[in-house]
Write a structure and sequence with these properties.
The complex is a heterodimer of chains A (489) and B (493). Chain A contains 14 helices and 19 strands. With 489 residues, chain A is α/β, with parallel strands linked by helices. A 6-stranded mixed beta sheet of chain A has the order 5-6-7-3-8-9, with helices on both faces. Chain B is an alpha/beta fold and 493 residues long. The longest helix of chain B has 33 residues. The chains are: A alpha/beta (489), B alpha/beta (493). Chain B: It comes from Pedobacter petrophilus.
Chain lengths: 489, 493
């Protein structure tokens, strides 16, 4: 006789007058570990939050905890997109803050945060150490929370979840931002906690899963469809057939043949060196793939190019033909560049509409602070239409599904037809379909001769236009090579 | 040294108090060019020093830091702040002689010592910049006649100055040139370029004078900004506990309440703040704030009078000389209050609940902002200056209370503000004793609308709305806020 663990009856959820889930029924029995998948915007995250009691909906959700288990009677939901706060609950941080050295510390260290969490939940510290080890996170113990990248924050959330071992653990996009080794280790750890009695519900479209996963559920037509194996997903053949706006067909105005030149660049925080003797040249029109494991220094390298790193002033670095620190302002540098990264997205203005967000790309500001002249405003309209965002142009960026938010920020990066496009893990958190669509757009947009630096992992799909690759390892350049198809497969 | 303001004839006093010009963005078309290629040397590398320096350098200017030899040798925090961000750091002797502009961003209390040390080292015709005029106006510091003296004062904490700059915006900034020290007539051009360098020109720049800045800044910080928020918070908390409201709830309501309430103030003035209340609650809040204004008016006037006459600075400097005896005793006392010692409870309070259950604070804020503004304007300070030093800054201070209560507020604000807050709080609490006896939990702790039918008299409501909206602080505020277009939401816990 199966014993039900979670039972959901007649669940209805509407978002802005539109039905998302209708009369949904779902019983998760004891011992069942699910993967929940479905199209972007189908309501996966909302459903998970409803189960975790973080969102309200009409209908019944009952969780039948095991009172005899040694595990806490709790549902823990790990978000795909985690906004950390400091102890006082203030989250008014900004993107460049992690690169700036300030003695007045605003956030805790990872170690202090874990001690705080353990105390709150009554956990033993010796039990977290093996988890830190397995996820390759021990080295971050003394790092300030503000210094962590989005992938590292994700790991910290996973560490807490695996340490707590709630009776039901729900993870939204567990593999986001993790490199290959960490993904494998995560699966082993998930199997371990599962063997200990934790039931899993993972929201993802990935193929490599923990072996303890034994059920699959898909949200189809606002309801749940259950199977024992994952239905083969049809990659949609929606080809993007729209013409690129004319103003983006023109080749960008290159100010110099040398877009980036680094001569022995070194960056360190106190004793910790994050970049060592970096030599790298990017010429106008080149399409680079930048790779490296979590914490190898990729984001720091890019922050130097985007004028975001205070230490760039003491290094020999040339941007667009000029020596850095020769009297230019960061706004003059940013004029040449369009950039997105998960961290940039993180700190983006939550009060900006879609249209304002795209328009702000003209001025490289986070949010729009000025009126646009007519021609620029018309270009924003044109690009908004090209990305299929016209209907949502007056909605707040932060209320859109993650995939759409990324498209908006991609539109923002190219609105001024920049010489250099920097896409730092632009598809993190997107599903396969969205990733393909996104990269297809990147290929089209770059066909006008724009320079590209793209950060992505091997296993994820990449734009086809990439032709060179630089690999970082522990802050050093490990490989610089021309890219051919074999490396990508 | 004698009080500079008191040496002036009345005509000149009024003249300098009345300098107040909200500058058009066309004034900043020259960008940073007046400082381009000049050597800027910042004295001190705390929150303002570091963050302003980062902005100025990112605007293409040549910035280095000078610290006392002891701070360099001891590798103090200020030394680490500067060196770890790759700034050149040197002693006064090493850097000051070559500096074109010396920017003094040390705490007020050290100004006399710092200026006395650096002035002899400064080269002929250089510029000395302050971010607060206390040293010049109240302490009467005399600056060498060949030197230009300017002030650039971002009206936000250092961390905000940086955060807004990298977002592509800035914080409202006040600039001034000291009329006794502008031998080459370059002061204003340099102050404007400095404001551009820190991003201030995007959020609005007010041209003021050293005198107007000091007299209005002191008044604002000791009455509405710190004083009344401190007194009101403690009285509210104690009242709730006295009436049996859960202490954890009371602590959270008070700690975060001012921030949520003044967020409405920041976005739409007193009108917006009052409009967040139901009609009945609004009428009540209006009535008690009128009563509060009557009770506190003499105290506000006394503070303004003492600031104008120099009496306030005199007794504060006496306390400095006595090793901050009064101040430290009071700081310790604040740390020991029941509010400070009760952690915020683990309860969820919705944004609207902060208004409905804390009507008393809405009344305190309206009374305090209007009184401070009115008193300043009556004393000859222009409405624009008075607006910045009262309404504009209230949400910023409320934010520090939300972070770590009153002790944190007093730690973050300047020494002059803390001393003024001490004087105000001492006097204000007894003044409000009778008033507080009448206050019950419908005004603080519970929903004011509970058990009421919500009906109000048309005429009364119209009159109340009219009185709120037609106040001068609302009219000048609407104009100034429009100039500062982007309003960032403060997150609520």
């Amino acid at each position: 006789m199966k014993e039900s663990f979670v039972s959901i009856e007649n669940l209805d959820l509407k978002y802005q007058q539109k039905s998302v889930l209708t009369d949904l029924n779902w019983i998760i029995n004891k011992g069942e570990n699910y993967v929940l998948y479905g199209e972007s915007g189908s309501g996966k995250t909302a459903l998970a939050k409803i189960i975790a009691g973080l969102q309200n909906a009409i209908g019944d959700v009952k969780i039948n905890f095991n009172a005899k288990s040694h595990l806490p009677e709790a549902v823990l939901f790990v978000e795909s997109w985690y906004q950390f706060k400091n102890l006082e609950g203030v989250a008014n941080f900004y993107y460049q803050q992690r690169y700036t050295s300030q003695q007045a510390k605003d956030t805790l260290t990872v170690h202090a945060e874990l001690i705080h969490y353990g105390k709150e939940k009554g956990l033993h510290f010796d039990q977290v150490e093996p988890i830190l080890e397995a996820l390759n996170f021990s080295a971050f113990a003394s790092s300030q929370l503000i210094e962590l990248s989005s992938g590292e924050h994700k790991k910290l959330q996973l560490v807490k979840a695996l340490w707590l071992k709630p009776q039901l653990l729900i993870i939204d996009q567990p593999y986001t931002g993790l490199d290959a080794a960490s993904r494998k280790n995560l699966n082993v750890l998930l199997d371990e906690v599962s063997a200990d009695g934790v039931q899993l519900l993972l929201i993802c479209n990935d193929a490599e899963l923990p072996t303890s996963i034994n059920r699959f559920a898909e949200i189809v037509n606002e309801q749940i469809a259950i199977s024992n194996s994952k239905a083969v997903q049809l990659v949609s053949n929606k080809k993007h057939t729209k013409e690129i706006p004319d103003f983006l067909k023109e080749s960008p105005a290159f100010s110099s043949d040398n877009v980036v030149k680094m001569v022995n660049v070194n960056i360190s925080y106190g004793e910790k060196q994050v970049l060592k003797n970096i030599k790298w040249e990017v010429k106008a029109g080149e399409k680079w793939l930048l790779q490296g494991h979590n914490g190898s220094g990729k984001s720091t390298l890019l922050s130097l190019i985007n004028g975001d790193h205070p230490q760039s002033y003491a290094n020999e670095l040339y941007l667009f033909g000029n020596r850095r620190g020769s009297g230019e302002s960061i706004w003059e540098i940013k004029q040449h560049i369009g950039l997105i990264s998960p961290e940039f997205h993180w700190y983006f203005d939550a009060n900006a509409t879609v249209w304002q967000s795209i328009a702000s790309g003209f001025y490289d500001t986070v949010g729009l602070f000025q009126q646009l002249p007519y021609t620029k405003s018309a270009q924003v309209d044109e690009l908004t239409a090209y990305f299929g965002l016209t209907k949502s142009k007056n909605e707040l960026l932060s209320t859109l599904p993650l995939g759409k938010q990324r498209l908006v920020l991609l539109a923002r990066t190219i609105i001024k037809n920049p010489e250099l496009l920097i896409l730092d893990e632009p598809c993190q958190g997107l599903d396969q379909d969205q990733t393909e669509h996104f990269n297809h757009l990147v290929d089209e947009l770059c066909s006008n001769g724009m320079t590209l630096i793209y950060v992505g992992h091997f296993e994820s799909q990449l734009p086809t236009c990439l032709e060179k690759r630089i690999l970082l390892e522990k802050g050093e350049v490990k490989v610089v090579e021309s890219l051919n198809i074999e490396i990508l497969s | 040294m004698s009080n500079y303001f008191n040496t002036l004839p009345l005509r000149e006093k009024l003249n300098q108090l009345g300098v107040c010009d909200f500058m058009d963005s066309s004034e900043f078309l020259d960008g940073v060019s007046a400082l381009k290629g000049k050597k800027l040397v910042i004295v001190g590398c705390g929150a303002q020093g570091l963050n302003q320096g980062l902005n100025l350098r990112d605007s293409g200017l040549d910035v280095s830091y000078t610290l006392r030899a002891a701070a360099i040798e001891g590798k103090r925090d200020s030394w680490k702040n500067a060196t770890e961000n790759n700034f050149n750091v040197g002693t006064y002797e090493e850097l000051i002689p070559n500096a074109d502009v010396v920017i003094n961003l040390t705490p007020d209390k050290q100004h006399t010592a710092v200026v006395n040390a650096i002035m002899p080292l400064m080269k002929e015709g250089a510029t000395l910049s302050y971010s607060h005029g206390f040293n010049i106006v109240e302490e009467g510091m005399q600056i060498r006649k060949d030197l230009t003296v300017i002030m650039v004062a971002p009206k936000c904490p250092g961390s905000e100055v940086r955060a807004e700059y990298v977002r592509g915006f800035g914080v409202p900034t006040l600039i001034a040139v000291h009329p006794e020290n502008d031998p080459q007539g370059k002061g204003l051009a340099q102050a404007k370029a400095y404001a551009v360098g820190t991003g201030g020109h995007r959020a609005g720049v007010l041209k003021s004078s050293f005198v107007a800045e000091v007299k209005s800044d002191l008044m604002g910080e000791q009455t509405i900004l710190c004083g009344l928020l401190q007194t009101g918070s403690i009285l509210s908390f104690d009242k709730m506990v006295e009436k049996g409201i859960d202490a954890g709830y009371a602590s959270k309501l008070v700690q975060y309440g001012v921030e949520v309430i003044t967020e409405a103030l920041k976005q739409g003035g007193i009108t917006a703040m009052m409009d967040r209340l139901s009609n009945v609650a609004k009428v009540k809040a209006f009535e008690i704030s009128e009563e509060l204004k009557d009770i506190m008016r003499p105290l506000f006037q006394k503070h303004q009078d003492d600031i104008m006459s120099g009496e306030f600075s005199r007794i504060m400097m006496e306390d400095w000389a006595a090793g901050d005896k009064n101040l430290l005793a009071w700081r310790a006392e604040t740390g020991e209050t029941a509010f400070e010692k009760t952690p915020a409870g683990d309860v969820k309070i919705t944004e609207q609940e902060y208004f409905d259950n804390y009507t008393l604070m809405v009344a305190f804020v309206r009374a305090g902002v209007e009184l401070a503004f009115e008193t300043m304007v009556q004393a000859g300070i222009k409405p624009e200056s008075a607006y910045y030093e009262s309404l504009h800054e209230t949400p910023l201070i409320a934010n520090t209370i939300a972070r770590k209560k009153l002790f944190e507020m007093n730690r973050v604000i300047s020494d002059t503000a803390e001393y003024g807050c001490y004087l105000f709080d001492q006097a204000c609490k007894p003044l409000l004793a009778d008033f507080m006896k009448k206050v019950d939990t419908d005004l603080v702790g519970k929903n004011f609308n509970e058990g009421k039918d919500g009906g109000v008299d048309n005429r009364t409501l119209i009159d109340v709305n009219e009185a709120i909206r037609s106040h001068e602080v609302e009219q000048i505020g609407a104009t100034l806020r429009k100039a500062m277009t982007a309003m960032k939401a403060i997150k609520t816990a």
